[in-house]
Design brief:
By secondary structure, the chain is of the alpha/beta class. It has helices at residues 3-18, 23-39, 41-57, 62-68, 72-87, 126-137, 151-167, 183-190, 205-214, 237-249, 265-279, 290-296, 325-335, 348-357; strands spanning 95-100, 106-113, 116-121, 141-145, 175-177, 198-202, 227-231, 258-264, 285-288, 301-302, 316-322, 340-344, 362-365, 385-386, 394-395, 402-409. It has 14 helices and 16 strands. The strands form 4 sheets. Strands 10-9-11-8-7-12-13 form a 7-stranded parallel beta sheet, with helices on both faces. A 4-stranded parallel beta sheet has the order 5-4-3-6, sandwiched between helices. A 3-stranded antiparallel beta sheet has the order 1-2-16, with no helix packed on it. The longest helix has 17 residues, at 23-39.
Length: 415
């Protein structure tokens, strides 16, 4: 057996134990993990510092370094996420329906774990803990395959979690890390059908496309975030400026950051200078349509056709002036990735139409797209944000990591 097959078999065995561990033991494991991360954060931060040094030497962009970086504040947020997951209701064992057939059979449907979940992701070490916590609470073993940029950080987190699991009497192999970060290990994980029940990619467009196109294991697709903020003619312009500033600049490297601003023509001359005044405080590069450049000047770069479909992940924003609601929503339908879309308006009818018409995992009225997040939605953490429509959509929390089975009570019926 290969090392990955050995890990898969161990995870399969661990999943059988975890699936019947019960809420109290799973919560004890999560509390032990939270406490251990706090106690051992020094070694985690040291590992992360080594990753950051290597990333700088390799020429990683500042936005990617930001995704990679940990500090005491971010570790505190990770720990809080684990404790929130522990405090959430346990979905496992929930009977979602029960009915009695004319023949006397009582038939119900019960939530059960998926089994063994594989996760392929890039340079965000917080995903290591978020994913493990959600998988543990939902009764699933997890095999984590992070990128080489965060390998030392991931290794430190997983060592802490495996020790904590063992300390409360659960198998260490409920959480495993693939130690080979080569393309070959990713390809092998995509074909590990004997041991994996589902594979979840979390990262950039290239990674997600590779997994979707090449995996033989069932995949839950987490999507690229080409997110729009549409400023409708009925908007409060001050509010709209604050929203696009937050949606673009609060953390431009993440998938819920806005990549494109749409502005109704009737308010463009008033609004665009207001928005630019805020955006320039973060040195945001604008790539605009001809009307945008006519209003703001030649320092706005001409937008190419490719810009309308790009997840920049950086301080870059595409800007387009539109002729009204229909043109804006048609543009979103053509160029959005189905992740998060927002309208800013005080027009109730326009807001409701936007909610009805726009097809995305999260649709906002008068709020930043940056809220599309498991923690912000009260899920404790998230395994990723699904932009597909089968099984799970939007931030994936505990319920999205479960399946179901029918349970049938009889009194001797035969067919």
């Amino acid at each position: 057996m290969t090392q990955l097959e050995t890990q898969g078999l161990a995870a399969r065995n661990a999943a059988r134990v975890l699936s019947v561990a019960g809420t109290a033991r799973k919560n004890a494991a999560l509390e032990a993990i939270a406490a251990a991360i706090v106690a051992r954060q020094g070694e985690i931060l040291a590992a992360n510092a080594a990753d950051l040094d290597a990333g700088k030497a390799a020429g990683l962009r500042p936005a990617l370094l930001d995704r990679l970086a940990l500090d005491q504040g971010r570790i505190a947020g990770i720990v809080e996420g684990v404790r929130q997951v522990a405090a959430l209701p346990d979905p496992i064992g929930e009977v979602t329906r029960m009915s009695t057939r004319p023949n006397g059979l009582t038939i119900g449907k019960r939530r059960v774990p998926l089994g063994v979940i594989g996760i392929i992701y890039e340079a965000r070490p917080n995903v290591t803990v978020d994913a493990a916590a959600l998988c543990l609470k939902s009764g699933n073993a997890v095999i984590l395959r992070g990128g080489k940029e965060a390998f030392r950080s991931n290794q430190a987190f997983v060592a802490v979690m495996r020790d904590a699991l063992e300390g409360v009497g659960l198998p260490r192999d409920c959480v495993a890390l693939v130690t080979d970060t080569s393309r070959e290990s990713a390809n092998e994980l995509m074909g590990l059908t004997e041991y994996l029940d589902v594979l979840i990619p979390r990262g950039g467009a290239g990674l997600i496309r590779s997994v979707v196109e090449n995996a033989r294991v069932p995949v839950i697709e987490t999507g690229v975030g080409v997110c729009h903020v549409y400023v409708h003619e009925g908007a409060d312009l001050d509010m709209a400026a604050r929203i696009i500033h937050n949606a673009k600049t609060s953390r431009p490297s993440v998938c819920n950051a806005a990549e494109c601003l749409l502005v109704d023509r009737g308010i463009a001359r008033d609004f665009l200078p207001m928005a630019w005044q805020l955006l320039q405080t973060k040195d945001v590069e604008l790539r605009g349509c001809p009307e945008t450049r006519a209003i703001l000047g030649d320092f706005v770069k001409p937008a190419s056709e490719a810009d309308w479909d790009t997840e920049f992940g950086d301080y870059i924003l595409a800007v387009k002036v539109v002729g009204g609601f229909d043109e804006a929503t048609d543009f979103i339908a053509a160029h959005g990735s189905g992740h998060s879309e927002a309208i800013v308006t005080n027009d109730y009818n326009a807001a409701q139409r936007f909610l009805d018409v726009v097809d995305a995992a999260a649709v906002y009225v008068n709020a930043s797209t940056r809220f599309t997040d498991g923690f912000e939605f009260g899920l404790g953490a998230e395994i990723g944000i699904s932009t597909q429509k089968m099984h799970a959509r939007g931030p994936m929390g505990l319920e999205e990591l479960t399946s179901s089975k029918f349970i049938i009570y009889g009194t001797g019926q035969v067919r």
